[in-house]
Amino acid sequence: MAIDYIFPTYEVVRDPNRCTVCRICETQCSHQVHRYDAGSGQMLCDEARCVDCLRCVSFCPTHALKIKKNDCAFRQNANWSQKSIEEIYKQASSSGVLLSSMGNPQAYPVYWDKILINASQVTNPSIDPLREPMETKVFLGKKPSSIQRNPDGSLCTSLAPQLTLSMPVLFSAMSYGSISYPAHASLARAAQVMGTYYNTGEGGLHEDFYGYGENTIVQVASGRFGVHTKYLNAGAAIEVKMGQGAKPGIGGHLPGMKIVGDVAKTRMVPEGSDAISPAPHHDIYSIEDLRQLVFSLKEATQYQKPIIVKVAAVHNIAAIASGIARSGADIIAIDGFRGGTGAAPTRIRDNVGIPIELALAAVDQRLRDEGIRNRVSIIAGGSIRSSADVIKAVALGADACCIATAALLAMGCHLCRTCQSGSCSWGIATQRPELTARLDPQIGAQRLVSLLTAWQHEIKEFMGGMGINSIEALCGNRAMLRGIGLTQKELDILGILHAGE
Amino acid sequence: MKKEGQIRIPSGCAISAVISKEGRRMTGEKIIESMIPMHDRSNGLGGGFAAYGIYPEHADLFAFHLFFEDEEARHTFEKLLKESFEIYDAEAIPIRIIEEITDIPLIWRYFAAPLPSVLRRQQLDEKELVVRTVTRVNSTLRGTHIFSCGKNMGAFKAVGYPEDVGRFYRLEEYEAYSWTAHGRYPTNTPGWWGGAHPFALLDYSVVHNGEISSYDTNRRYMEMFGYRCNLQTDTEVITYMADYLLRREGLSLRETASVIAAPFWSTIDKLAEKDSQQAEQLTYLRKVYPSLLITGPFSIILGFTGGLMALNDRLKLRSMVVASKDDKVFIASEESAIRVMEPNAENVYAPMGGEPIIIHVKEGAY
After folding, report:
1. pLDDT tens, B193-217?
2. Given CB atoms, is B287 within the 8 Å cutoff of chain A?
3. Residue B182: which pLDDT band, with cuts at 50, 70 and 90?
4. Of A282, A365, B239, B358, whose CB neighbour count within 10 A is largest?
5. Out of B210, B213, B264, whose CB is closest to A468?
């Protein structure tokens, strides 16, 4: 119907003087935007299908293409934005829940950008990381409340299982199914090279990747897809996924079209059937139930693996984290409301949850107030975009950060936020073989290694500037941070002073 | 302008110490003199001393040294102290009025013992009760600051140059088997005397030169265990860390040193080839106490009953030398200070970064 018509969001601009009609754009576009018209001998396009993934632009050998935001617009209205109007039309015609992908793109405050980092001047020396040792190694896991000694007086050095990270960054959970085989292969290889971890997400572990077990975190989510004893014992740690920053309080839904071949086998579900993760774990309706699952998993793995409990950052996160810390979990992963997703209801993604910065600060302080901060390690995620964000998160109190969107970007993602279509032109969020073949795991892994290597250099420079030569002396070191343009309330929650104080 | 404790003030410093391994007592004259050649390392905004073995007549009693703003503060404190301690002796600490030291608060000392009934009811040992009492007084009582609370030892400190502070407290009249001294160079004006060093808790005292970059990590960890960093100084938190690791966690001095000035992972890896057990223990300590690593420059002298431990940060970003002569061991920021105390000092040695120098007085001699 004409009233449902929404003009194309993007305009494909082709310079006819540059275009050689090589048709590369046509073969590269997984959304069928470009097509060759034999009659006129020209390239045509259906702009309504364009998602601004920039695949054609990147591959156009003559730089003939660019994608522009369409300037065709509704009459200007400060209240009814174009997006709001278009979404009304979509729902009026479809009666459906709006779906989106990747992290919350709305203009909420980004607290990372309102926090500044300290450096040494005069009274203590900065340290040059090129000349002096600069330690970024991190151990995640439960620390004992007091030491034990052997009969001969020496320290009894047995310790709850720990994860060892060469730097305070690991890859967040992304399931095989939501992302492709080569994407998983890239993450696994990069984690191994860098001495850190990647996370299977809830889709099970492809049998080809058992060899990367020492650098793998296996996830147990509410759908329990692909969970079996061998799987639990395959990784270095087990993560219980209670929630996800992009969609707190709701489950997951991997459409049947992505449940093909090995994905179905790995998840242990029939091909083509939707894989639906319930909103709650149906064996966890309260904190004491979580404790039972945590210990069931420990029993299943002979207490050799640390258990991570991942939760979305919601209003009462500090009290929730305190409960988790007392549940037997070794590590808490907190996912902020900007965290990515392969698909989530738009309204949930854009309106539920709180920023990771505030959640992290509140949790760290609460665990300290209760004297149990050393019982658990904290992983912060949900839009860590750079080494500066890592430094700020660690100084606020995170033991490590996890990254997913940044990792996808390194592998080629252009953040078009259309993962739910299953037609990712970059071969990442798709299971279509002709598309997944576009991502070479060798190159994907190398780019991830490069990204983390670059961040590690930058982290060392920040640390050296502050006169800190080991990352553990930065953890929770909030005196190294100052707020800029924040209210007193925000400063109080973050536990930092304002710049100039 | 904010008072110390409301704001964090970094400072540079001079430190000095002497100890007799035979437990022979020395008056405060030499240690005061040792600070004179290091005059320029202080700026007149803080000096102090700690002395061990000075109260043999009250050796079994806790000696509380206090600053009061006024008499009312003192009366409030005495009332509170009597709730859980029996006071055996109380007096103003003798001072010498000199023009270099001004704005003098009331300075008192109390010799007291915990009431056994209170210890039983609160299920505490006497040291823990003292720590809790000190934390409570220093956090909550107006115009009152306990700056020393050990047995048979005491800290003496003031705003001024250390050599003047020594004369002010008439330290030549005290005899100790172990002395430490501190001259302060804060980068801001401390409002009052509590910010001077040494900082002392129970019989632990710390003099420190440096500015630690791990301060807030260390502070926030220690505050989990009931310590309150009211002064926001490095020395304060280091003292609490020493108390926590040595007394509450039961670590040895050497283990404590390898927590706060932990060897680099590369060093531990190298050691693993020769002594895997030692490497394993060091790894364990780093894993268990990551938040108690101190980074940034420091040289500290930790005093305790019957000994001293000197320690540099692991990169050795602050000067510190050790020397000896006969039964005496000397430690100072500069050799010049040692030469004043003992012109013929031998075995002058600059300890490596993170290498603890531990000196014990002969058993039974203190």
Report:
1. 888 889 999 999 999 998 899 999 9
2. yes
3. very high
4. B239
5. B213
- Helix, strand, coil: what percent of chain B each, to 5? 35, 30, 35
Q: Is B251 inside a domain boundary?
A: yes
Which positions 94-133 of A are in contact with B (Cβ < 8 Å)? 120, 123-125, 127, 132-133
pTM for the model stands at: 0.94
Inter-chain contact B295–A470, Cβ cutoff 8 Å?
yes
Rg for chain B, CA atoms, rounded: 19
Report the CATH number that the domain containing residue B223 is assigned in CATH. Answer: 3.60.20.10
CATH topology of domain A2-96: Alpha-Beta Plaits (3.30.70)
- So what's the pLDDT on residue B110? 98
Contact state of B224 with A157 under an 8 Å Cβ cutoff? no
Domain spanning A162-471: CATH superfamily: Aldolase class I (3.20.20.70)
Q: What is the mean pLDDT of residues A188-194?
A: 98
Interface test with B, best of A360, A392, A470, A478 (most B CBs within 10 A): A470
In A155-194, the residues whose Cβ lies within 8 Å of chain B are 155, 157, 159, 162
Percentage, residues of chain B above pLDDT 90: 85
A 452-491 residues with CB below 8 A of B?
466-470, 472-480
Q: Which of A144, A159, A469 sits opposite B295 (nearest CB)?
A: A469
- The answer to whether residue B1 sits within a structural domain is no
Q: Which residue ranges make up each domain of chain A?
A: 2-96, 162-471
Q: DSSP letter string over A121-178? A: -SSS----TTTS--B--EEES---SS--B-TTS-B----S--EEESSSEEEPB--BTT
User: What is the pLDDT confidence band of residue B191, given thresholds at 50, 70 and 90?
Assistant: low
| pLDDT (0 to 100) of residue B2 | 65
Catalytic, B13? Answer yes
Average pLDDT over chain B, rounded to whole?
93
CA-based nearest residue to A227, from A171, A301, A332: A301
Name residue A16's amino acid: P
Say if B366 falls within a structural domain: no
Which residue does chain B place closest to A138, by CA atoms? B287
Q: Give B278's contacts in chain A (Cβ within 8 Å).
A: none
- The greatest distance separating any two alpha carbons of chain B, rounded to the nearest whole angstrom, comes to 63
Identify which of B217, B225, B255 has the shortest CB distance to residue A477.
B217
Q: What domain range includes position B335? A: 11-360
ipTM higher than the 0.90 cut: yes
Asked if residues B161 and B183 have their Cβ atoms less than 8 Å apart, the reply is: yes
